Automatic annotation (TrEMBL):
It comes from the Bacteria. Residues 342-552 form the O-methyltransferase C-terminal domain. This is Methyltransferase. InterPro entries: COMT-like, COMT_C, COMT_dimerisation, SAM-dependent_MTases_sf, WH-like_DNA-bd_sf, WH_DNA-bd_sf. One of its GO terms (molecular function) is methyltransferase activity. Keywords: Methyltransferase, S-adenosyl-L-methionine, Transferase. One of its GO terms (biological process) is methylation. SUPFAM superfamilies: S-adenosyl-L-methionine-dependent methyltransferases, Winged helix' DNA-binding domain.
């Protein structure tokens, strides 16, 4: 069970008031006793309990302290050490993390001046920092007991480090904070009977030499092992999120009021204790948040069940079926057919062939097309990223077409279930649309565009890329080229080029591989394309070359949400090699 922030503060203050160095040290380091314990206790005194909190608004913090019986009468200081640790652990830029320190005073049993050290990272709604808060709240990586050196002498500091490690403490990093000219050395401790598992030695002054020796002894392999464990268990994340969606938990939860486990189990026909295990994991992922273990607000007469109460976060809300930008179909897809194919990724790497085809015996478009339920799930999972399409109706090519004196036609080539065309036609009542797709998708598009009220302005063509309708004004290839290898892309682009009148524009929606190797969703989708469809993501220059091979010229590009881009191309002034090769024309069907 996770305590709320006020309860954590009260518990920390009570601990600080109760313990002496000499009684506390053996709880952390069993085996430290007798004269050695007396000597260590004489050199370092118990100074504070450190905790990390995540207020929505930092201005609430002093009220929270007051509500916990604590007063911070000094200004807050910027944290260096904890901030860097958080940035490293969560792979964030330090600039994103404004961590502050306050030290409300508390007295020890004999009136000694001590403190509760309160680190805060403000997590405003929608800041994207919720997963960090959820992870840290659940695992308490920064919670610690601190001992301050009475004589901050490098020799004493080294001696204390040696004694602590001899009794099982393991170096766990540290740092120097220039804002207060103090050095901290962290250790993890072998015993957690006192409820804490990290110990800090605090030495006033700059002791970076000792610090360097201490951090060099941090088993780098330990940090690496921890990182690797997080990476290796990525599959659990995919499946836990899909399970969450399949069990309809997001729909059973509220974003503002927490619901008790028993009630949630009743609503989703699950076992309360097993559900609690899943929800605790999902708390770490930031899709749900655990609230204090109060009685269930939905059943105020029922006593608390001791298993906590959970609410849906804004991140988790995206997995609700009724959320406008729902990503539920993607959760089911990535944990379903694409999960199975990823297990055969080696095959793709060895042979260059899609693991999906190897596993299912056919290309994924054919496989999905044969199963109406899967086909529908695939179409909906493509539409789940429709946030990507939102700026497209305002693209200059589309607005120019919409403002033209005579009605213009937008041709969406392999337009899926019509999500993008629906956005464009809804925004511009003067435009007409043509959607080319395989037969099952055409039917889905007909239904979806009809329900948007723009069905009457749309033509539907069942066919293949060779059937790209002639005579349109704007052609769209959205997330098509990344499904195919370069040869097939050239073919598709040539079909488009042949169908496009001289004045027509082509818009291509794709993710672009970064030129500098910086992390991007495109790099992940490059792997996905290789494994599942035999396609790939590309850099902008790569698309420019493919376009040029088809007699088209890349004019510009602009960014879209979800790390996508829209590339704008037209027919090149000079005929490209494609036009010289005299390929047979596709269907001559024109746009009406
Ligand atoms: C990745 S989806 C993209 C759908 C849509 N353009 C979007 O961005 O949401 C690729 C689409 O290509 C269609 N497709 C695959 N092979 C095709 C072919 N030979 N001719 C026409 N469409 C095809 C599939 O049915 C699928 O809807």
């Amino acid at each position: 069970m996770l305590l709320d922030d006020a309860a954590r503060l009260r518990a920390a203050a009570a601990f600080v008031r109760e313990y002496e160095s000499a009684t506390l040290l053996p709880l952390l380091l069993p085996g430290l006793h007798g004269p050695e314990l007396a000597s260590v206790a004489a050199y370092c005194r118990f100074a504070h309990v450190g905790i990390l909190l995540f207020p929505r608004d930092p201005r609430d913090l002093r009220d929270l302290l007051a509500a916990s019986g604590l007063v911070a009468d000094t200004p807050s200081l910027p944290s260096v050490v904890v901030r860097e640790r958080l940035a490293r652990r969560h792979r964030r830029d330090v600039a994103e993390l404004d961590v502050q320190i306050l030290r409300p005073r508390v007295h020890g049993p004999a009136g000694e001046p001590r403190a509760v050290e309160v680190f805060t990272l403000a997590v405003p709604e929608g800041s994207g920092l919720e997963p960090i808060a959820a992870h840290e709240r659940a695992l308490g990586h920064e919670t610690h007991l601190a001992f301050a050196l009475e004589r901050p002498d490098p020799l004493v500091l080294r001696g204390l480090c040696a004694v602590l490690t001899r009794h099982g403490a393991r170096p766990d990093g540290g740092g120097y904070n220039p804002h207060e000219n103090g050095t901290v050395l962290y250790f993890t401790t072998p015993d957690t009977t006192c409820g804490y598992r990290r110990l800090e030695l605090y030495a006033p002054g700059d002791h970076r030499e000792v610090l360097a020796a201490h951090t060099s002894e941090c088993p780098g392999t330990n940090r690496h092992s921890e990182t690797l464990l997080h990476l290796l268990t990525g599959a659990w994340t995919t499946q836990a999120l899909a399970s969450f969606a399949r069990l309809r938990l997001p729909e059973a939860m509220d974003t503002t009021v927490a619901t008790g486990i028993r009630e949630l189990a009743r609503r989703t026909a699950t076992r309360p204790d097993s559900l609690a295990t899943l929800l605790r994991y999902l708390t770490m992922l930031g899709v749900v948040a655990e609230e204090s273990d109060a009685a269930d607000p939905n059943e105020p007469d029922e006593p608390s069940d001791g298993q906590g109460a959970f609410r849906l976060t804004s991140l988790g809300r995206l997995l609700r079926a009724d959320c406008p930008d729902t990503m539920r179909p993607l959760a089911l897809m990535y944990a379903g057919p694409f999960y199975r194919s990823f297990a055969a990724l080696d095959h793709s790497v060895r042979t260059g062939q899609p693991a999906f085809d190897h596993l299912f015996g056919e290309n994924h478009f054919d496989h999905f097309a044969r199963d109406p339920e899967l086909a529908d799930l695939f179409d909906r999972s493509m539409a789940a990223s429709s946030r990507m399409f939102r700026p497209l109706p305002a693209h200059p090519v589309i607005t120019a077409a919409a403002q033209a004196a005579t009605p213009r036609t937008v041709v969406d080539v392999a337009g899926g279930n019509g999500e993008l065309l629906g956005h464009i036609l809804t925004a511009h009542p003067s435009l007409r649309g043509t959607l080319l797709e395989r037969p099952h998708a055409v039917e889905a598009a007909r239904r979806s565009l009809g329900s948007l009220g723009c069905g009457a302005r749309c033509d539907y063509r069942s066919g293949d890329f060779a059937d790209v309708p002639h005579g349109g004004d704007v052609y769209i290839l959205s997330r098509i080229l990344h499904d195919w290898d370069d040869d097939r892309c050239r073919e598709i682009l040539r079909h488009c080029a042949r169908a496009m009148p001289a004045h027509a524009d082509l818009l291509i929606v794709e993710r672009l591989l970064p030129a500098d190797g910086s992390p991007s969703l495109a790099t992940a989708w490059d792997l996905h394309m290789m494994c599942n469809v035999g396609g790939r993501e590309r850099r902008a220059e790569h698309y420019a070359r493919l376009l040029a091979d088809a007699g088209l010229e890349l004019l510009d590009r602009s960014p879209l949400p979800l790390e996508a881009h829209v590339l704008h191309a037209r027919k090149a002034a000079q005929p490209g090699p494609a036009d010289d090769q005299g390929h047979a024309r596709g269907s001559d069907a024109g746009v009406s």
